[in-house]
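Run Putative NAD(P)/FAD-binding protein YdhS through structure prediction, thanks.
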Amino acid sequence: MRAVREGPPTVVFVGAGPRTVGLLERFAASAPELLGDQPVEIHVVDPYPAGGGRIWRREQSRLLWMNSMTSDVTIFTDESVECEGPIIPGPDLAGWVNGPGATILERAGLELPGPMDFPPRLVQAEYLSWVWERVVRDLPASVTTHLERAVELTADQRVILASGQEIHADLVVLALGYLDRLPTASEQAWVTEAAAAGLTYIPPGYTADVGLGGLLPGENVIVRGFGQAFIDLMVLLTEARGGWYDECDGILTYRPSGTEPILYVGSRRGVPYHAKLGYTVAGTKPVPTRYLTTAALAELGDGVLDFDRQVRPLIDKELAFAHYQQLFNAHSERTRWPWERFLAVLDGSLPDAPVFAAAVLEAVPDPVDRFVRSEVDRPLHGRFFADRTSFEKFLAELIEDDLLRRASPEYSADLAVFNALLSIYSVLSVAITEGRLSDEDRVRQVETEWHGFFSFVASGPPPRRLEELLALHRAGIVRFAGPDLEVAIDNDRFVARSSGVAGEIRAKAFVEARLPRPDVLASTDPLLRGLLADGTLAADELFAADGTSLGGGQLKADAQSRAIRADGTVHPALFLLGPSVSGSAGSSGFSRPHFNGPGFRQNDAVARNLLTLLAPAVRKEERHAS
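Sure, done. The structure for Putative NAD(P)/FAD-binding protein YdhS is below.
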């Protein structure tokens, strides 16, 4: 083993966002047990302030909202979390707002959100900042923050900062969030061609960081993407430019400032993400899957599974079960069969089997109570509109119906599907980490198609945002471009066409309203690029069966979150966590209270591993071995 330098052991965390905060909370919880009186130095390196990091920083528009309700977010463990370390309770976001956060938010000029509200991101920024300060007070260590970027990690564990400062580390944790990446070949071609034609092209990116000055008042802008990135874009180009909303008799009206462009928005589906559910139902929560289980996948044999043939049918069956179980048990007046009879048909078939389709027709009389995943996924499939006016009228009514349904517990089967999606995601994550899916299926089927469906159904905007979307449409600021939107350059204009709507849209600006696909091999981060180049870190370059490149995969880490080198060996003193790391749990969002979040469990295990490595007995053994 390598010799350990004299003096207090030092841990360097690169990244100061929520992941590091949560990991240090677990570090503080187990330190008295595992570290005793051993002194420790902790350094946290990030160009953005500790707590919120880049995404949840204070310096962003207060008009941008969270995608979760106040009551659905916590950074602290509770009695539901299954971990070795002690549970140290702390307030979830809703509790914090009504407790220590009230004064902080009032001082910042922010209203106090209710538990069912979708608060501004600045509220979460203040919460994370407060949690950071509490964690630092609880840590039995000196903590130094560095508001700059780490650019290199040497073989002898020196972390070199952009300023040239060097930190000698015993252990290093890379807890990097979403990474900036080089543009794809297609995106670079768009940049080049748009510049040559004098057009404005904005590639995929985090909307709050994108410069929007080139989108001019009154001019057409083609927008491809109808998810969260579009909602942020919509807010920043309307209300943030001085417009406002009036409400009379339940109808929202947008009052333009005159500085807004005209947004023509479309996507593959051609519809916005479903609104977040506006209700809760007692007793409905994620439960273990019934059909898509690790045991069921194991019964399919060893080796790599075929997603379309072996996995997708089980997903569809799982979603159908969740939907119909809630419908039959909570709204039996809208069904004709007893649940046990219907379940027997589902248990013995698949959702696309004729016998099951016949059972649905007989047992569920109203089509609005039926669930067909493909129809939920592509509500405009097979439709064609001969003119844009009729399409826009149809889509506006579709959004209005969605708002009514997502607000009504009479359709609590939707909530059951939402919870099932969370449980399915857990099983798919295990299948991926165990190598049961090919690279092609993981990228194209899970990370693209399945994650897209999950986001469409479960990660949509607050209902108010869709009400604003409709108000903007009535004001002529937002127009609907249609499904399967294709964009090209024709002389001095972008031209957009949809397979579902006749006609074309011409504009001098085009925005790709989405996050770039993660690809660590294309990361612009100098630290990661250096570690990948010298073999300290490893990541797969993924290829489809026909040899087509799928881009870079995630960084490789073992079950203890230790980095795997290019030669396959494990780095004993370098730990990896975050959305760009294989097997990193809880990277898709904040955990809900009383949910036994997988991110908490992983943070606890990693924190205890760090503490064990730092403990006096271990350090003494390392010195002896050296």
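Residues 307-330 form the longest helix (24 residues).
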